[in-house]
Design brief:
The complex is a heterodimer of chains A (108) and B (470). With 108 residues, chain A is α/β, with parallel strands linked by helices. Chain A contains four helices and seven strands, in the order E-E-E-H-E-E-H-E-H-E-H. Chain A starts with a strand and ends with a helix. Chain B is 53% helix and 15% strand. Chain B contains twelve helices and eleven strands. In chain B, helix 1 packs antiparallel against helix 6 and helix 7 packs across helix 8. Classes of the chains: A alpha/beta (108), B alpha+beta (470).
Chain lengths: 108, 470
């Protein structure tokens, strides 16, 4: 399993445990979308590589989640992937934050 | 449990696999040989056993055991061979197995219950027909357990009097060895067949990939173009399994304008190559109908939304107005273009890739391009090229390489940047297409009219209209 999911009262914390996000692991993340609560944090701490299929699946996921009124945040994103996320406009739908910034939001 | 044999996706077709296949062939023949030898030894042992000739009843029992054992072995080996070579149906195989089973039971009633262990090879054969390799081994283990239990039970109950137990022990052991050998033989042969099938499939896929490569290469526009004071050079190095990188040139020479685009279809293999062909066609149609890049990208995105199951496509489109030396840029999620004019400048323009969501409007930026400026487009294969240690080439190394070669002509600059990537990766397998396009506004046009720079069109450039192709 590529994901470890922690559920809080009104938030979901998804740790991506694979070192790469590709079409397969992105599908697992998409499958986890049903468990996403109003505030969801995706932790990319273990991720070293994201290929184009992974980006595609992630984009579809975050756009769909935002359309359903969910707030998403990404944490522990490398500088390389921060730039990739920026280029594909993912940051508009899933801003990157530090964990210490996100915690007060998801656990006020 | 493997329903359809082992997971052969992890078996790359290689010289190593061929060697492995040969090793498994040898192991198969060794196992069959062992089974035959064991059966032979059992026969000799029984024939030479004390009392075999003095007690006609015991001798009859022994011969009956040998005959039954040989019948079972013959059935499994011959029927399996026929099944593989001539497509013997499972039904025929099962009917034969049923008849042999009845004979075994009949012989057991006369010669002693040890004969029931002879059913084990039949079960092994059955498991092989069903391609359940783990069952084969379980059956072999079950055979050992069964014979031990039978021996114990019959001895305790005092019913084991068909033959002297001192003679039965070695016979039973030899039968068990035969059973295990058969199980191994069946397992090895089944595995070899799977690998042969996989290798054939790989060869077929490889030839399909070659066709995909040829299609992809044939679809690419000419790599080197020059119109007046502007020139362009592009190079794409496809990954082994064919990716979806492409570049495109749109001539609008009557207006002194030309467009250059670079894109990347998510995914790999033939699906990505085919999707790339669709996107390029859509793009060429829309780009000829419109001037401004943002409108073109929006139209292509709308058209792609109509295509079901279409993946993501990143596309960067730059449109050069040569009369005003202005570059119009619009970006759908592609790597930012780099403008080189003594310094390194990225034109930051985020945008959703095409095919992700409808109703997207794309931003357009205009950049004045002074003579001596180079514009670089590239795909993610450059920055995500990986060395043997798993490190990425990355944005910083690209920036370094671009600055290092900024004063070169487009062709030289592209070659040298790609050479930097190749040196970095140290021969590590290329996982994605790598494409670099350099557009340059030359400092001197020599005051020549466009027509004087023109050379005859290459055959592949026919679709691109009247232009100055080098």
């Amino acid at each position: 399993m590529a994901l470890k999911i922690d559920q809080g009262n009104d938030y979901t914390l998804i740790h991506i445990q694979n070192d790469s996000v590709d079409a397969v692991s992105a599908r697992e993340i998409a499958a986890a979308s049903e468990q996403m609560q109003a505030k969801t944090v995706l932790d990319f701490g273990s991720v070293m590589f994201i290929n184009s299929a992974g980006i595609s699946a992630l984009l579809k996921l975050v756009i769909e989640a935002r359309k359903r009124g969910k707030k998403l945040f990404a944490v522990n994103v490398t500088a390389h992937h921060r730039k990739v996320f920026e280029m594909v406009d993912m940051l508009r739908y899933m801003p990157i934050a530090r964990m210490d910034e996100v915690l007060p939001i998801i656990q006020p | 449990m493997f329903e359809n044999g082992p997971d052969l996706k992890n078996f790359p077709a290689s010289q190593a696999d061929l060697k492995k296949d040969s090793a498994e062939r040898r192991l198969y023949f060794v196992a069959v040989g062992l089974a035959t030898l064991a059966t032979g030894l059992a026969t000799i042992f029984i024939l030479l056993a004390p009392g075999a000739n003095s007690n006609s009843t015991v001798a009859l029992h022994l011969w009956l055991q040998v005959a039954t054992a040989l019948l079972v072995l013959a059935f499994v080996v011959v029927a399996d061979q026929l099944a593989v070579k001539n497509g013997l149906t499972s039904r025929s195989w099962l009917i034969g197995a049923g008849i042999v089973t009845l004979i075994v039971f009949g012989a057991s009633a006369i010669a002693g219950e040890y004969l029931t262990v002879l059913l084990a090879p039949l079960v092994v054969g059955m498991a092989q027909r069903r391609r359940e390799q783990q069952t084969l081994l379980l059956v072999a283990l079950a055979a050992i357990t069964l014979i031990l239990l039978e021996h114990l039970l019959l001895t305790v109950l005092g019913w084991n009097n068909a033959i002297n137990s001192s003679e039965q022990g070695p016979v039973a052991a030899i039968i068990v060895i035969s059973t295990i050998s058969l199980a191994l033989a069946a397992l090895m042969r089944n595995y070899r067949l799977e690998i042969n099938s996989y290798q054939k499939e790989q060869q077929s896929n490889a030839s399909e990939m070659e066709v995909a490569h040829e299609i992809q290469t044939a679809l690419m526009p000419p790599s080197e173009i020059r119109t007046g004071a502007w020139s362009m050079f592009a190079k794409s190095i496809p990954a082994k399994d064919v990716g979806g990188d492409f570049y495109e040139y749109i001539p609008h020479l009557d207006q002194g304008i030309g467009g250059v685009a670079i894109g990347d279809v998510a995914g790999k293999g033939i699906p990505a190559a085919l999707q790339m062909a669709v996107v390029r066609t859509l793009f060429r149609v829309e780009a000829r109908r419109r001037i401004f890049p943002a409108e073109t990208l929006m139209s292509v995105n709308v058209a792609l939304q109509a295509e079901r199951s279409f993946g993501m496509v990143t596309l960067l489109y730059g449109f050069v107005d040569q009369t005003s030396s202005t570059l119009h840029l619009s970006n759908a999620g592609h790597n930012y273009p780099i403008i080189l004019n003594g310094s390194f400048n990225e034109v930051r323009m985020p945008g959703l890739p095409l095919g992700i969501d409808d109703g997207i409007e794309y931003e357009e930026k205009r950049v004045h391009i002074e003579p001596g400026t180079s514009i670089i487009f590239y795909t993610d294969g450059v920055i995500e090229a990986m060395d043997t240690g798993g490190d990425l080439f990355g944005f910083p190394r690209l920036r370094e390489a671009v600055l290092k070669y900024q004063h070169y002509e487009p062709r030289e600059m592209v070659d040298r940047i790609l050479a930097e990537v190749a040196v970095f990766t140290e021969g590590a397998p290329q996982s994605d297409d790598i494409t670099v396009v350099v557009i340059q506004h030359h400092k001197q046009t020599d005051g020549q009219p466009l027509s004087s720079l023109a050379t005859p069109l290459k055959a592949s450039a026919g679709d691109y209209g009247e232009g100055n192709w080098i």
